[in-house]
Amino acid sequence: MSALRVHHSSAADRDVGNIVLTISRDNPAAALRVADAIDATVRLIAKSPALGEAYPHPRHAGLRRFLVNQFPNYAVYYQADPNELFVVRVLHAARDVASALSG
């Protein structure tokens, strides 16, 4: 199976930017490792979108969640159809996920 075409919501782009910025204040090398791990996780999901677990949410039909490889405190929330992967959010486990997904 070929990889799905990947699209990110503006919120997901902001999430990743904020994650990298926050971590880079104390450890720039770690921030790059986390960014690379998020990217690798999204590529993996694009190849096998059923990997993630269903994450029911009233605003996002078919939402799924997959933990970021090597950094399981972060999760990618996404939707997939036969041709495309849509990354909705990338969130830290300490976040109020329900509120973040609703906002």
UniProtKB/TrEMBL annotation:
InterPro entries: RelE/ParE_toxin (IPR007712), RelE/ParE_toxin_dom_sf (IPR035093), TA_system_RelE-like_toxin (IPR051803)
Pfam family, one: ParE_toxin
Gene3D superfamilies listed in its UniProt record: RelE-like
Keywords: Toxin-antitoxin system
Keyword Protease part of the UniProt annotation: no
Coiled coil: none
Keyword ATP-binding included in the entry's annotation: no
Protein family: Belongs to the RelE toxin family.
Protein name, as recorded: Plasmid stabilization system protein
Species per Swiss-Prot/TrEMBL record: Pirellulimonas nuda
